[in-house]
UniProtKB/TrEMBL annotation:
PROSITE patterns: PROKAR_LIPOPROTEIN. It comes from Chryseobacterium taichungense. This is Cytochrome c domain-containing protein. SUPFAM superfamilies: Cytochrome c. InterPro entries: Cyt_c-like_dom_sf. GO terms for molecular function: electron transfer activity; heme binding. Gene3D superfamilies: Cytochrome c-like domain.
Amino acid sequence: MKKFIYIISSAVVLIACDSRTYEEISDNTPIAEKVTYNKDVKAIIEANCVSCHSPGAQALTNYNQVKNNIDNIIDRISRPTGDPLKMPQGGSLSPAQINIITKWKADGLTEN
């Protein structure tokens, strides 16, 4: 009888467990207000990109450089973990940060 109860209890626990992906449990809350470079994007870029992308051919140190490279930036930050072209190297932006950058493009890439 104890073995039967153990099997039933185990089955209930296994059925109750929910397997969800990272995207399903992440903060993907839509951003209601207009996203701008100075208010929203600049801090993300400075904290995650500038250490490698400072003055040079791939610099991302100012509004125009980020704006002119937005398609490449979105492509690189959106790649799956393990992709050698994913940025930032050795980590990832949060889904909320990726949403901010993506919405900035959709909102027209405004500076202020």
